[in-house]
Amino acid sequence: VMSILRRIINKISWEYRRYIHFGIGNYNLIKSGKLVCDIKKINFYQRVYIYKDGGRYVLGDGVQFGYDIGGRNKRGYVELQARTKKSSICIGQRVAFNNNCTILVCGNVSIGDCCRIGSEVEIIDFDGHGVPPNKRGNVGKIAPVHIGDNVWIGNRATILAGTIIGDNSIVAAGAVVKGIFPNNVIIGGVPAKIIKKIEEDDKNAETK
């Protein structure tokens, strides 16, 4: 029993050394300027972990983490990692994240207003490892990711380093996205390509 308790305590202490669950210690981050947001205007339907020893986090009003009827996925969590002191994650207003999303950053990731991010989406602004065999211990190339306003990203999509997605665009579920994409397009596939343009009639269809 003592061995089990010790493992549990070690796991909890490790998490709170390196991560902070929103609602526990986040006011210290706000006071230090590393977390910029109005906690009262953030909607939490799933646990959120942020890496506290790295960079800066800016969250706009009305950001939603998780989905309130997410079923078994509600037992997971959203994870934000600004890994280096100079890195940042900037999320606009009224952005809705479905369950179990992950953002990993060594440089900068910015997400515009009113975006919809599907479940298990990953956004990464570095390669993860260097390509040459003798550089696999490095993070590889770092390049900023920018997601425009009103972008819809489908479930389990992966957004890779150096990607720019224009306003109003859609990323299909399961897509692996790397590159620069304009406003008002649907992107899909592995690797992702433009499938079609979103015409004005498509954009206004729901209001008719």
Notes on the structure:
By secondary structure, the protein is an alpha/beta fold. Helix content is 14%, strand content 32%. The protein contains 3 helices and 22 strands. It has helices at 2-18, 26-32, 200-204, and strands spanning 19-21, 35-36, 43-44, 47-51, 56-59, 64-65, 77-82, 88-91, 96-97, 102-105, 108-111, 116-117, 122-124, 145-147, 152-153, 158-159, 164-165, 170-171, 176-177, 180-181, 185-188, 193-197. An 8-stranded mixed beta sheet has the order 3-6-9-12-15-18-21-22, with no helix packed on it. The longest helix is centred in the N-terminal third of the chain and has 17 residues, at 2-18. It is globular, with a radius of gyration of 18 Å.
What keywords describe this structure?
208 residues, 7-stranded mixed beta sheet, 32% strand
Number of helices: 3
**Sheet with the most strands?**
8 strands, mixed
Strand neighbour order, sheet with most strands: 3-6-9-12-15-18-21-22
Number of beta-strand segments = 22
Low-pLDDT windows of residues:
none
Percent range for β-strand residues = 25-35%
Radius of gyration, rounded? 18 Å
Shape: globular
- Overall SS class: alpha/beta
Mean pLDDT: 87
Q: Quote the distance from N terminus to C terminus.
A: 63 Å
Helix content: 10-25%
Q: What letter string, H or E per element, gives the SSE order?
A: HEHEEEEEEEEEEEEEEEEEEEEEH
